[in-house]
Amino acid sequence: MNEETMNEELTTMTGKEHRAVLKRLMSYTKYHIPLLLFTGFLVLLVTAAEVISPLIVRSFLDNHLTPLSFEMKAVLVLASAYIGLEIGKFVVWYFQLFFFQKIALEIVQRIRVDIFSKLHTLGMRYFDKTPAGSIVSRVTNDTEAIKDMFINVLSTAIQSLFMLIGMYVAMFSLNVQLALYSLILFPVIVGLIIVYRKYSSKFYRSKREKLSQLNANISESISGMSIVQQFNQERRLIRDFEKINKDYYDVGIKNIKFNALLLGPAIDFLYAIAVVIILSYFGAEALIGPVAIGTIYAFVNYFDRFLEAIFNVMERLAMYQEAITAASRVFRIMDEKEEVPEQHPEEDAVIRDAKIEFKDVSFAYDGEHNVLKNISFTALPGQTVALVGHTGSGKSSIINLMMRFYEFEHGDILIDDKSIKHYPIEELRQKTGLVLQDSFMFYGNIRDNIRLYNTFITDQEVEEAAKFVQADRFINSLAGTYDHKVIERGASFSSGQRQLISFARTVVTNPQILVLDEATANIDTETESLIQTGLRRMREGRTTIAIAHRLSTIKDADLILVLSKGEIIERGNHAELLAKQGVYHSMYQLQNNGMDLDADLTV
């Protein structure tokens, strides 16, 4: 993660931003209003039970225990009422918690679908600058924090609000003067909550960011494990991980110390003050006349529950801060503007002949430094145009623009004399087949990896495509053949076998345009000889743009473009470029170990 992104993550939200995130988060509850109202009613019932139960005990103490009047019927009524109230409270409490958790899970499910859907609309620039582990952390850990907020914070906040109101109503009904005295603690409680919210937000924002860095480090290490072990980088990566893990630990310890100071001890101290106020008041009253023991019990009990509600709110405030921080990170992805290039499809825009033309195209990944400069060429229907050049010359950038992975600002790319921007993206994807140097395989089986779960592609078409590129030779030797299990990223197959499956995946869709990005780079000589015939058959009747490092594989191309630093410096067919004795001639001679080129010059 770059420094700018990290600083942005660690910036404390303003009050306005905080409220905006909360408002947006709560907007997801609009799909659950009826169930929320019903659950709120259940909370009200639980609160009523909490308020009434001390009054039953008070009645027993003042009317029966103190005067030693134990009329069996009256005592049994009070006992039955108390037990029945507690049982009813527990039953209602069960359904209250169940419905709150159900709502929370459904909300988080919707948020996860929203963010996952958004990720698939983002342009490649976003994934170029954002570590995969950080993205995974937002989709999993951050949404989990949001779920915890809805389960614990929302239910606790509603219940505590009802509890606070109920407790004070009960206290005022018992003794107005003492209830007013107890309000002295209210400004202290409010101040405690404000201080806690102010400082805990910083800790939790930092904690979420450290967790994101931790996940990014783990993801990168696992993805590149073969390189890590090959170059003996284990110790360095362990040191880096230990540092990030220690930072995460330090932030967690700071947060624990802060919570330990302002949660339990502070609330207990307030409770002690409240007890002193209550006992002092009733002590003074006892000097004047008799004091009702039940009223003392009820007041102490109510204030205990009142402060318990405050404690629950402050304890859940930690989860709330964490959830708001997590939600802001999730919404930042949802608000990301780096989306896939926008199309402006025209009516009846259909690729028919597959003529491709680049007209003075310039492009920069960062918007400033051009990696392509005034690229112009034409690939007529059925022709093959090959792109060659040293690493960084701009070959893959041409492919990226043609596939609409990135937006270009200067020049235009035409297909059948119509701007590529005016075709529906579905039309472009359907009519264009892409084969990359590194073939990606999904977990499943070979058959599904070839048709990519497209149910319109039959098993027969899958097998014909594999046979067409001669992948059937090794597939038929596997246990289960086309149903052979593919583990993650196809690790059990050789690079050549994965590439053959990638070829079959492209052929099965019968595209009109072929884009080959170093498609034979990872294939051994024997495998390459098997698929060269298949490649020539694939190119027949199709317009092909091919990147190649092995110049021997594109000798029959209709047009070869030699690129250097984003510019076309030579163009022509194989024989014409050899005759020029320029850069292409040098590259070809180098690959052929200085062999006599007379035979090639006469081609």
Helices and strands in order:
Layout: H1 3-10, H2 15-26, H3 33-65, H4 72-119, H5 124-129, H6 132-174, H7 176-182, H8 186-223, H9 225-230, H10 234-262, H11 264-288, H12 293-334, E1 356-363, E2 372-379, E3 384-389, H13 395-402, E4 410-415, E5 418-419, H14 425-431, E6 432-435, E7 444-445, H15 446-451, H16 459-468, H17 472-475, E8 485-486, H18 495-507, E9 513-517, H19 525-539, E10 543-547, E11 559-564, E12 567-572, H20 574-580, H21 583-591, H22 598-601
Parallel strand pairs: 3-10, 3-11, 6-9, 9-10
Antiparallel strand pairs: 1-2, 1-4, 4-5, 7-8, 11-12
Helix pairs in contact: 2-12, 3-4, 3-6, 3-12, 4-6, 4-12, 6-7, 6-8, 6-12, 8-10, 8-12, 10-11, 11-12, 16-18, 18-19, 20-21
